[in-house]
Amino acid sequence: MTTITTWFTLGLLGELLGTALLAYGYTLVPERTRRRYLLLVAIPGIAIVAYLLLVLGVGAIDGGGHTVYVVRYVDWLLTTPINVLYLGLLAHANRETIGKLVGLQALTIVFGFAGAVASGALAYALFVLGAVSFAGVVRLLYGDVGDAAVVALSDVGASLYRTLRNFVVVLWSVYPVVWLLGASGVGLMDVETASLVIVYLDVVTKVGFGTIALHAWLTMETVTATDRTAVTAD
Ligand code: RET
């Protein structure tokens, strides 16, 4: 248990530093992108609360013989839809597509949680429903949302969309693997190891996503500013 608390404490520190960095970035990004940028600060911000509760030992329940960290699922239920919402808004996808994207991502987490507290065949059936919902998210991100990005954005903007989407799809795909290998699935991975992997992923996905976007906005601004100087100098 002590080891787990250590990992949770590291997670808390990571999310705190990440939120501080991204909050500072708010002052640097262009005015017109600020509202949307706040979503990127909220993602690790919500995780601070979740990790604080985990460190304090709040929010763990017994799910049929193994510990289920409810707080973790609540965090994901709030933050992963925000994450895909950001991608949808960035791509200028239409409302209906964004609605599907957010809804399917929320369903992924709900089914995953239900599967974690269930046992036997039902647990796996719920896992499959979660995996199918997530496949729907991936399909939209490469399909309709990706198409919208190409139509609405400049080359640089569309390239940012692709980077963020690939980052999300690759890293998020590790979560179902940990679910399956961990106590909720076949139990090959002990709770400590699974927690370490999840903490690491949580920090990298949340802070990494925001940092990539922040870096891209800053670079785009510099490029635009340089262009403007070049034009004025001519
Ligand atoms: C579950 C199990 C059911 C099937 C699938 C899952 C996917 C979970 C994902 C979680 C992402 C979490 C993130 C957290 C950041 O802090 C629920 C494990 C597909 C994609 C990005």
TrEMBL record:
Keyword Transmembrane helix: yes
Domain of life: Archaea
Keyword Membrane attached: yes
Keyword annotations of the record: Chromophore, Membrane, Photoreceptor protein, Receptor, Retinal protein, Sensory transduction, Transmembrane, Transmembrane helix
Entry's localization field: Membrane
Membrane topology: Multi-pass membrane protein
InterPro entries, per database record: Arc/bac/fun_rhodopsins, Rhodopsin_retinal_BS
SMART domains: Bac_rhodopsin
Residues of the signal peptide: none
Coiled-coil positions: none
Membrane-traversing stretches: 6-25, 37-61, 73-91, 98-116, 122-142, 163-182, 194-218
Family membership: Belongs to the archaeal/bacterial/fungal opsin family.
Protein's UniProt name: Bacteriorhodopsin
Species whose genome carries this gene: Haloarcula onubensis
Organism classification: Archaea, Methanobacteriati, Methanobacteriota, Stenosarchaea group, Halobacteria
